[in-house]
Amino acid sequence: MKEREQILIRASWISIIGNAILSILKMGVGIFAGSLAVLGDGIDSATDVVISIVTLFTARIVSRPPNSNYAYGYEKADSVAAKVLSFVIFFAGMQMLLSTGKSIIFAVPRELPSTIAIYVTLLSIIGKLGLAYYQFRQGKKAGSVMLIANAKNMRNDVIISTGVLCGLFFTFILKMPILDSITGLLISLYIIKSSIDIFMETNVVLMDGVKDTSVYSKIFDAVDRVPGAVNPHRVRSRQLGNLYMISLDIEVDGTLSLNEAHEIGNKVEHNIKETVDVYDIIVHIEPKGKTHHEEKFGVDKNSLSDKLR
């Protein structure tokens, strides 16, 4: 947990400093060069600074140990922060959409941007590529959906800056400053779309679901490898960061002693932990062959097979 906290904090600080430099540079050049697209790109980088501050704050929260109020710990703060990031990105995109849309609709007279806008955009693409790659690697290493969401946002920034560069290029070739505004409009729509994508991705974890349902097949395979354990059912799994909370029922021979049944349950737990990254696991043991009422919750082999068809 300590190592994970350090990864999150270090990645957040690097993101804050890198994006602050790029944001100040792009907004300054955007105003000086008269390019709405570059200015909008700079505003987007400014939101990345806010996003990174959120990730820094969240890194302090997720590392807190469980307590009586939060018995499972604070891991879900990571997903909550990613949800907050989606709103920040959305409002930045809407702001840019309104400003560029207004300049197009009301045909505001524009001059050709200065060529310095091209050079700062090239620099932005290189810088954002480095930041996105670093954030994604650290997010995978720490199992943080928050850092991975931030990396995806920066990847989008690379696409945005590439769009700005293309817009500037054609603006200078065709001598039509309106192309700069149109590029800014398209960029704003892309920003809004990326915010919606991040918002939807975090729903699964916050709704106590799992993104990769193959985890259930791994659980069933782990149970099958334990002699004496049969009929795994009412299997439930949810995510806390990159770890899984798992609970399941298994059946054993009803004539076994409590110690023998308990040992089988321990072997099931051990096998599952060998193939799944587990935060916590509960194995409930039942006597074999008892009639079960239809369960409202959980997954069994039959229901999983139906979903995979």
TrEMBL record:
The chain crosses the membrane at residues 12-39, 45-63, 84-104, 116-136, 157-176. GO terms for cellular component: membrane. It is found in: Membrane. InterPro entries: Cation_efflux (IPR002524), Cation_efflux_CTD (IPR027470), Cation_efflux_CTD_sf (IPR036837), Cation_efflux_TM (IPR058533), Cation_efflux_TMD_sf (IPR027469), CDF_Transporter (IPR050291). Residues 13-207 form the Cation efflux protein transmembrane domain. One of its GO terms (molecular function) is monoatomic cation transmembrane transporter activity. Its main location: membrane. It comes from the Bacteria. Residues 215-287 form the Cation efflux protein cytoplasmic domain. Pfam families: Cation_efflux, ZT_dimer. It is a multi-pass membrane protein. The keyword Coiled coil does not apply. Keywords: Membrane, Transmembrane, Transmembrane helix, Transport. Belongs to the cation diffusion facilitator (CDF) transporter (TC 2.A.4) family. This is Cobalt-zinc-cadmium resistance protein. The lineage of its organism: Bacteria, Pseudomonadati, Bacteroidota, Bacteroidia, Bacteroidales.
